[in-house]
C-alpha cells in the first residue's frame, strides 16, 4: 500500500489527511474510494477510522481519512465542532478526491462512525456525488439522541440547563462557555480508551447546541437510489440504537439496517469479524470494486 499525507482547504482552513492506495494498483488505474470520517472530537488515527480503512484497502478501495476542522492536525478552533462545517469539509474532501489519478471520481463513498456517521448520512443526503453511504453507530436526530444519552433521573434537564447557560454566557461575554466532552456525550469508563490522543477534551457549549439541532434523518430519504448501510450495536452504551432504526424508517431503497449483538459503540475499533463480513458482503452486492452491482435476485 502507498500512503500519502495530503492537505486540502475547506472554509478557509487547511485540513490534514491521509490517502491510501492499495498495493498492486497501477499508476493510472482508477478504483472506487471511501472517505472515512472520525467521531466526536476525534482524529483520523482513531481505531474506528483505521479499522474500516484497513478493511476497505484490503478489499481494493482507495481511502481518505482526514481530521475535521479544529481536530487533530487540521486548522480550526479547538473544541468547537460545527456539524454543517463538517458536512462542508466532507464535500470539499470529495471534490479533492475527484482529481486523484487512482480514483474513479464517480464512485466515491463515505463511511463514518458515531458523529462521523451522522455527518456521512447528511452529506450523502445533500450531495448527489456521494455514491454510497455507510453509517456505524450513528444518529439522525440530535434532540432525541441527547435525551436517550442523558436518561438518568434529572440528567436531561441538567443537559438542557447547560445549553441554556451556554447561550446566556455567550450573550453576556461574547465568548464560549467550555464544558467537558463527557458532559455532552457520556461514555462509560470502560469505553474511554477508544478516545485517542489529540482528541478534544473540552468543547464549546455551541458544539452541543449544534449537535442538538442537527437532523440527518431529515435528508436520509434523499440518498436513494444510491445504496446506504446502517449499522448499530443492539445495545449501544453511547448512542441509542433507536437512532439508526428511526433513520431506516425514513430511508429509501436500497437501504439496509443491521443490528449486532456482542459489540458496542466502537464496533470497528473492536475488530468484530461479523461486522467486517456484513460490510464486505454489502459492498460486493451494492458497491463492488469492479463491475456493476449484483442484482438482488442473484443472492
Structure description:
By secondary structure, this protein is an alpha/beta fold. The chain has one domain (2-143, 213-287): Alpha/Beta hydrolase fold, catalytic domain (Rossmann fold). Helix content is 34%, strand content 22%. The protein has helices at 47-59, 83-97, 115-126, 142-149, 155-173, 181-184, 205-213, 242-250, 273-286; strands spanning 2-10, 13-21, 31-37, 62-66, 103-113, 130-136, 178-180, 202-204, 228-233, 255-260. Helix 3 (115-126) links the parallel strand 5 (103-113) and strand 6. Helix 2 (83-97) crosses helix 3 (115-126) and helix 5 crosses helix 7. The longest helix has 19 residues, at 155-173. The model has no long low-confidence stretch (mean pLDDT 93).
Index terms:
299 residues; globular; Rossmann fold; alpha/beta; 8-stranded mixed beta sheet
Task: Explain briefly what this protein structure is.
With 299 residues, this protein is α/β, with parallel strands linked by helices. It is 34% helix and 22% strand.
Count the domains: 1
Number of helices: 9
Strand order of the largest sheet: 1-2-4-3-5-6-9-10
- State which percent range the strand residues make up: 15-25%
For the secondary structure, the number of strands is: 10
What ranges have pLDDT less than 50 throughout 5 or more consecutive residues?
none
